[in-house]
C-alpha cells in the first residue's frame, strides 16, 4: 500500500497532500469529518468523509479502518472497509484487503487482486460529478414506489407463519 509506485503517483504534477491527521485504531468518530490535506484512518468513522480542499486532499484507510458513510475525496487509498459510496474523482487505489459496499465513482482506478466492490464502478471524467449518489437513487426509487419496501402481510403470509 505504501510502496514506491504509489507514493510517486501521489506526488504527481498537481501534488497531493502529505498525511497530517490520524484517526487511531481504537478511535470511533460519529458524525461527518471534513478535512484538508491528508487523513489516515486506522479506526472507525460513522459519518461522511469530505475533503474541503479540491484536488490536493488524500484519504488513506488501513486494513484496520472502517468508514460507514459517503466518501468524497479526490485521492483515496483503501485497504479497509467502506460501507457507502466513494467519490474519488482523481485517483483511487483499492488494495488487497479493500471492501467497498456501495458505488465507486472514479477518474483513475487501481484495483489489487483480492479487493472487493459490492456496487457499481462508475467512470467519471476528472473533476466531474455523477448525477445521482447511491442514497439519492434509493430515495428516488422509494418515492416512485413507496409501497414496495413496506408491504403489509397477506393472508397467505400469516398462514405460512402459522405452519412453521
Automatic annotation (TrEMBL):
Residues 133-144 have a biased composition (Basic and acidic residues). Residues 145-164 have a biased composition (Acidic residues). InterPro entries: BacA/B. Residues 128-164 are annotated as: Disordered. It comes from the Bacteria. Belongs to the bactofilin family. This is Protein CcmA, bactofilin family. It comes from Thiohalospira halophila DSM 15071.
Amino acid at each position: 500500500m505504501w510502496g514506491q509506485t504509489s507514493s510517486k503517483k501521489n506526488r504527481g504534477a498537481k501534488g497531493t497532500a502529505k498525511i497530517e491527521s490520524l484517526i487511531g485504531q481504537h478511535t470511533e468518530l460519529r458524525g461527518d469529518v471534513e478535512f484538508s490535506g491528508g487523513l489516515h484512518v486506522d479506526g472507525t468513522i460513522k459519518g461522511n468523509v469530505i475533503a474541503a480542499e479540491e484536488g490536493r486532499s488524500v484519504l488513506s484507510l488501513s486494513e484496520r479502518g472502517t468508514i460507514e458513510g459517503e466518501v468524497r475525496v479526490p485521492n483515496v487509498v483503501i485497504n479497509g472497509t467502506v460501507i457507502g459510496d466513494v467519490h474519488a474523482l482523481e485517483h483511487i487505489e483499492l488494495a488487497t484487503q479493500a471492501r467497498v459496499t456501495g458505488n465507486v465513482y472514479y477518474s483513475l482506478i487501481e484495483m489489487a487482486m483480492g479487493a472487493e466492490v459490492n456496487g457499481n464502478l462508475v467512470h467519471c471524467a476528472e473533476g466531474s460529478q455523477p448525477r445521482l449518489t447511491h442514497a439519492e437513487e434509493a430515495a428516488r426509487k422509494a418515492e416512485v414506489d413507496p409501497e414496495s419496501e413496506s408491504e403489509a402481510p397477506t393472508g397467505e403470509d400469516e398462514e405460512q407463519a402459522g405452519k412453521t
